[in-house]
């Protein structure tokens, strides 16, 4: 019986096997990072349409941008978890896995017969990570949770706007991503512990908990003052000057987090007298006199262009940046020099560009990625290599609607340890 498929890379998690039941974003982002780090990830998808994000436009030759963004370097097995045979297959794969990842509402995996207690009974080394909107023991209970719901309940939306304007969700899906990021912390810590004890863990991460944990200094402002931080647009709630400033033809970012940078900025503005001005000499006074200082800065900076100020701010060693569009950000020299974009070949979509993972070891980034799989692209490969099934077994499961295969799913002859 073939025990495993050859690991994709020599990354630090090479040899670690992940069984991924998660879908959409909170969960798939975590399993994608595990794949970047060398783990073998088998993504379990519903046989009808797969991960819901496969249907989210825009598409490239039928492949969703959303699915591309979150599912590189994973194997796809299309499995009917509502059938006893489908659950049996999932249990068989879990027995051989180091990590199980799921992001259903609490209780769903138990009802499917795939809960932590059930799977751990046959694999005490299993690390089982559950991501949900609110976790257990929450008054929000079984309410569905998506990124914007978590953002709203966390308080972060309330400060993500200019004063007097309607609150906005963050431009990136941080509610979803926060759940994935904290789950990675838990998974990697549990792997370390397992090396010492031989036992796995059940990790629970809630999206709302994760965003609350990422409030940082905002929560402490409330605890210390008793008042909720108010929106300040792109400015900082307690550091002045800091944020977006208008020029004659646009805006630039200036971030004077320390007195040294504030002094440099005052000199850059040809306003060195501001350094000793009692209204602006120390943090507290600059904060108390924010409007007066902002007016002085704006009057000076709107006389010259963004390019002028970016060059001058750099000359005076003031933290600064232009405000780039997503396209400009992806095309900037930094991204090119760091090798953050790669081209991969997909059997239907053709050549596609993807953003690479950001983690480097010994100066080297992740191995080249594998394009996101078609639905069921690896069903036969996984069942043969992991569970030792032959084609007659597989044909029976196909006829029964337990599994689904892709036209590109071919038996693999690769074996590994």
Automatic annotation (TrEMBL):
GO molecular function: transferase activity
Keywords linked to the UniProt accession: Transferase
The keyword Nucleotide-binding belongs to this UniProt entry's keyword annotation: no
Protein name listed in UniProt: CoA transferase
Biological source species: Roseinatronobacter alkalisoli
Pfam families named among the record's database cross-references: CoA_transf_3
PANTHER family in alphabetical order: SUCCINATE--HYDROXYMETHYLGLUTARATE COA-TRANSFERASE
Domain of life assignment: Bacteria
């Amino acid at each position: 019986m073939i025990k495993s498929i050859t690991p994709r890379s020599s990354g630090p998690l090479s040899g670690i096997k992940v069984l991924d039941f998660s879908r959409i974003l909170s969960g798939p982002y975590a399993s994608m990072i595990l794949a970047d780090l060398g783990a073998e990830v088998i993504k379990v998808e519903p046989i009808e349409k797969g991960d819901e994000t496969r249907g989210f436009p825009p598409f490239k030759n039928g492949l969703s941008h959303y699915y591309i963004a979150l599912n590189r370097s994973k194997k796809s097995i299309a499995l009917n978890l509502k059938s006893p045979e489908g659950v049996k297959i999932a249990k068989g794969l879990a027995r051989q896995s180091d990590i199980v990842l799921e992001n259903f509402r609490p209780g769903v995996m138990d009802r499917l017969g795939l809960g932590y207690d059930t799977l751990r009974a046959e694999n005490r080394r299993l690390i089982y990570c559950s991501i949900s909107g609110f976790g257990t023991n929450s008054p929000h209970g079984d309410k569905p949770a998506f990124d914007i719901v978590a953002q709203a309940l966390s308080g972060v939306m309330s400060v993500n706007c200019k004063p007097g304007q309607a609150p906005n969700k963050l431009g990136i899906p941080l509610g979803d991503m926060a759940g994935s990021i904290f789950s990675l912390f838990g998974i990697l810590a549990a792997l370390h512990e397992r090396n010492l004890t031989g036992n796995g863990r059940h990790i629970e991460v809630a999206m709302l908990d994760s965003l609350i944990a990422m409030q940082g200094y905002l929560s402490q402002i409330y605890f210390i003052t008793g008042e909720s931080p108010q929106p300040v647009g792109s400015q900082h709630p307690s550091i002045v000057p800091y944020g977006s400033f208008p020029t004659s033809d646009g805006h630039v970012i200036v971030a004077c987090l320390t007195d040294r940078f504030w002094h440099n900025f005052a000199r850059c503005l040809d306003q060195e007298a501001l350094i000793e001005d009692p209204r602006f000499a120390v943090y507290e006074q600059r904060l108390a006199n924010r409007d007066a200082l902002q007016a002085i800065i704006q009057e000076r900076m709107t006389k010259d262009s963004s390019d002028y100020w970016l060059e001058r701010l750099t000359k005076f060693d003031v933290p600064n940046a232009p405000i780039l569009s997503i396209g400009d950000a992806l095309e900037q020299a930094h991204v090119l020099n760091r090798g953050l974009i790669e081209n991969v070949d997909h059997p239907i979509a053709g050549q596609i560009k993807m953003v690479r993972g950001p983690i480097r070891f010994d100066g080297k980034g992740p191995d080249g990625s594998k394009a996101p799989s078609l639905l069921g692209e690896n069903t036969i490969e996984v069942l043969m290599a992991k569970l030792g099934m032959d084609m007659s077994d597989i044909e029976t499961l196909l006829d029964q609607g337990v599994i689904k295969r892709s036209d590109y799913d071919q038996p693999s002859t690769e074996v590994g340890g």
